[in-house]
Write a structure and sequence with these properties.
mainly alpha
């Protein structure tokens, strides 16, 4: 029997019960009814139960999902509803670049180089994390140590990998053929790159005045449903069922505070250099199609960080993180996660890999028990910690982000994008990272398959407001 993951009610309710607990909503009575009826709770590393549910159990799951949606959250005041959340600073540009036609050819080339490094950085970090996606932290560490790559400093490989460790911690099945040191041949398709492509297409078609409805229509036109996961797949289903934003994000969607929106942020930062408030506004408009509260704040935060890092004024990663933090609700759990990541990283010696294991252990002690590995909060804390502990240096940043586990390819991608911008040029990233990608990106997003990262940089520059 066909098992459609991430959409079946009996697979969603366990995740919604977990989200309710994180929100402080009392779902004890509902959980007891579900378990008594034979329902399962949320798995840690899978999207679906092993057996199809009966019609009666599926109907009960639908009923209970709707009941869960009615439970009030005591955190609502600190985490405003998605359609009310806005950047908390005014929208005055911060050192914004002049209009493209007012810049010299040298300036334009410099900006193109920075965008080229950002696209490459996103791709490199993504590929670095792909083979160990879904593996537990102990597995990542064991593999890296077995191959002489710990602290993590280069691509994963299975050369000289102890076979006992290989059997205990198998590579991500889909990624192994395209993301190990011995077989990388261009950038393989991944949703962490598909979404920036879709965002670029969105700006090409609608400019910076796009609506959330424009995002929805673009997805239906250009994004294959099978390339969506978690909250994006739920929103896609809701669109096909006739729902409109923001209800696409809220209707039976337990993944609405997971990482999906955060990985769509980059294009809004890249195209609003020096204007983090505007970048956060566009990210909010995109994010509410699929996410709420902390899920949306994640996209706003990353967009604001990238816009700040892309500005003309010299900056540090620490200034960038502080600026981005000012563009999300300060009492939200997302803001708390960023602050915890930064503070935990600062408590250990920074600038070298030594000590980052202790940082990661502290993050996992705080988040691993109660949060799925794709939830936005633990990954946000890890992203902030990796950037802080490495001082934004490219190799240190992506390796720390990936070595910390959880959503390894997404964290590597976002960390690489920000650190790539700060590095300033493809050459600054290092040939050992850039050469295997061969300036070639594979994708099913129409018109972009096989495109070079240099061309993407040029198109991104053209899409700036």
């Amino acid at each position: 029997m066909l098992r459609l993951t991430w959409v079946q009610p009996e697979d969603l309710i366990g995740h919604e019960l977990r989200q309710a607990a994180q929100d402080g909503r009392d779902a004890t009575r509902i959980e007891r009814r579900w378990v008594a009826a034979g329902g399962h709770l949320a798995p840690d590393r899978a999207g679906a139960s092993p057996e199809p549910a009966s019609l009666e159990l599926r109907q009960l799951a639908q009923q209970l999902l709707d009941e869960l949606a009615q439970l009030p959250s005591p955190l609502a005041a600190a985490e405003p509803p998605m359609f009310q959340a806005r950047p908390v600073l005014d929208d005055k540009p911060f050192g914004r670049l002049p209009e493209p036609d007012l810049r010299s050819e040298t300036d334009r080339q410099s900006e193109t180089d920075r965008l080229h490094a950002a696209w490459l950085g996103r791709a490199i970090g993504c590929v670095l994390g792909k083979p160990v996606e879904k593996l537990p932290l102990d597995g990542i560490r064991a593999i890296a140590r077995s191959t002489g790559n710990w602290p993590l400093n280069t691509w994963f490989t299975e050369r000289n990998l102890n076979q006992r460790i290989a059997a205990a911690y198998p590579w991500n099945r889909r990624s192994r053929p395209t993301s190990l040191a011995e077989n990388i041949d261009g950038m393989p398709e991944d949703d962490d790159l598909n979404y920036p492509l879709l965002g670029l297409m969105l700006l090409q078609r609608h400019g910076h005045d796009f609506t959330t409805g424009d995002v929805a229509k673009l997805w239906l036109d250009e994004l294959p449903a099978g390339r969506t996961f978690t909250a994006e797949r739920i929103a896609y289903r809701n669109l096909l069922d006739g729902l409109e934003p923001p209800h696409t994000a809220t209707h039976r969607n337990p993944f609405r505070e997971w990482i999906g929106a955060q990985i769509r942020a980059d294009i809004f930062g890249w195209t609003n250099p020096g204007d983090p408030a505007k970048a956060a506004e566009l990210a909010h408009r995109d994010g509410v199609l699929t996410h709420t509260a902390n899920g949306v704040y994640g996209e706003m935060f990353v967009a604001a960080a990238i816009a700040h890092a892309a500005g003309p004024a010299p900056t540090t990663i620490h200034e960038t993180l502080a600026t981005a933090l000012a563009h999300i609700p300060p009492g939200s759990r997302y803001a708390q996660a960023i602050r915890f990541g930064v503070e935990t990283a600062q408590a250990e010696p920074t600038g070298t890999p030594a000590g980052f294991e202790q940082v990661v252990d502290a993050l996992h002690a705080r988040y691993a028990h109660d949060h799925h590995w794709v939830h936005v909060l633990p990954n946000a804390a890890l992203l902030a910690a990796a950037l802080t502990h490495s001082d934004g240096e490219f190799t240190g940043t992506i390796c720390r982000a990936v070595s910390g586990g959880w959503d390894t390819d997404s964290n590597g991608a976002t960390a690489g994008s920000i650190a790539g911008l700060l590095a300033g040029s493809p050459e600054a990233l290092g040939e050992r990272w850039t050469a295997p990608l061969k300036n070639r990106l594979a994708t099913t997003v129409g018109g972009f398959d096989g495109i070079g990262f240099d061309e993407l940089a040029r198109l991104t520059l053209e899409a700036r407001a």
